[in-house]
Design a protein that fits this description.
Length: 407
């Protein structure tokens, strides 16, 4: 079942934006050429945006407000560029994650209502996070585009301003140069925005669906006796036949557990460097966003831009730290779910004794929960969210005090 054939809003939106960036699976050569063209176009627009910001920073050096605005924009632009390079360098593993999620998580053959309910809850969480991050990021893009139009009201043609300053030897404020450059900047801005949030949306979906599969596996392991065929027969629990059937089902669940662990390791390989970069940058970005909002000389339009972006950053940080924390909690809960199984009542056969031994191995493995790290430096969890916010407040206080001393 393809992602675009499902009714999951979060996955439909994520797949659509990833296709616009050019990093998604292709069915045939035609789609493959379209993906390559989209990727080249994305890189071209990001590099064009970087050239604009670096040029403006160079010519505006000395103007603190403008330079700070350029620094913030440069940080926003470099984030999707780095993500694209990391994903391209791990393209094989990245496509494996997409195919595995499509074939094993988004399936129609969940065995009972409880499994379907868990899957539905995961989809609901994914939809909330993806929609809010997409809305807040696009709100930032709209503010970037609309703010110069509002500022141009009542001005002469020679005084019109663009979303971003361009230092070229052309009369950019006059028609048709103004309209052409404005359109180019808007298209470039839109693609930079898509690259900014689409990878985080996909990581959130991967993480929450993986946590949901761990939760489904907990239900299966804790209710083996209720899920096998002969659950209604009296006295079957203490029979050799039940022990054999129970051990056969348990082996299948162990294989599922191993597959989920391998999936998490693939996630770690593909996204760990992206997570490290984001955690390091978020403290500085949140600090600068808050400072731009409170800066006295900042115009209202600029404050609105950074207010939307601050909301997007807070959601983005919460989204991937919460989803990573869900993986930790649900994978470690496998141990208690296995312990709640029917192993004390199994008949003393080879299957019964072997299942008890294998059960202890599963408990020992679950004692080391699956997790995503920032390139191995630290484990990402909800505690990371509070640490980043605490660091951002410290940076903001230091920057504020330094500015007041200069003034």
């Amino acid at each position: 079942m393809g992602f675009l054939n499902t009714d999951d809003i979060s996955m439909i939106m994520t797949a659509t934006f990833m296709k616009l960036v050019g990093l998604w699976t292709a069915k045939d050569r035609h789609e493959q050429r379209a993906r390559k063209f989209a990727l080249i176009y994305t890189l071209a627009t990001i590099l064009f945006a970087l050239w604009i910001e670096f040029t403006d920073f160079y010519y505006s050096f000395g103007d603190f407000s403008t330079c700070l605005f350029n620094v913030c924009n440069i940080m926003y632009i470099t984030m999707p560029l780095l993500k694209i390079f990391i994903i391209v360098s791990n393209k094989k593993d990245f496509f494996y994650l997409i195919f595995y999620t499509q074939n094993n998580f988004y399936k129609d053959n969940y065995n009972n209502k409880r499994e379907q309910q868990i899957f539905t809850n995961c989809r609901r969480q994914c939809t909330i996070f993806v929609c809010f991050l997409t809305f807040s990021t696009k709100g930032t893009l709209v503010c970037y585009i609309i703010s110069p139009l509002v500022e141009n009201i009542g001005k002469n043609e020679s005084e019109r301003v663009l979303p971003f300053n361009m230092w070229v030897n052309l009369p950019l404020s006059t028609s048709p140069y103004y309209e052409i450059v404005f359109t180019i900047q808007a298209l470039s801005l839109y693609h930079v925005g898509i690259g900014y949030f689409c990878f985080d949306n996909l990581l959130c979906v991967f993480n929450l669906q993986l946590a949901g599969q761990f939760q489904i596996l907990q239900y299966k392991m804790a209710n083996i006796a209720d899920l096998i065929e002969e659950k209604n027969e009296k006295g079957i629990v203490s029979s050799p036949r039940f022990a054999k059937k129970c051990y056969a089902a348990f082996k299948n669940y162990v294989r599922e557990h191993q597959a989920l662990i391998a999936f998490c390791e693939k996630l770690e390989k593909v996204f760990s460097l992206i997570i490290l970069w984001q955690v390091l940058m978020f403290s500085l970005i949140i600090c600068l966003d808050g400072y731009q909002i409170l800066l006295p000389e900042s115009p209202v339009r600029r404050r609105l831009i950074f207010a939307f972006h601050l909301a997007a950053c807070m959601c983005q940080l919460l989204m991937f730290t919460y989803s990573c924390d869900c993986i930790i909690q649900e994978s470690s809960s496998i141990a208690s779910a296995v312990y709640d199984g029917p192993w004390p009542f199994l008949f003393e056969t080879t299957s019964g004794r072997t299942m008890r031994k294998d059960l202890t191995l599963v408990i020992l493995r679950s004692a080391v929960p699956c997790c995503l790290t920032a390139r191995g430096f630290f484990v990402v969890s909800l505690e990371t969210y509070t640490r980043v916010l605490s660091t951002a407040v410290s940076y903001f206080t230091l920057l504020r005090q330094s500015t007041l001393e200069i003034v």
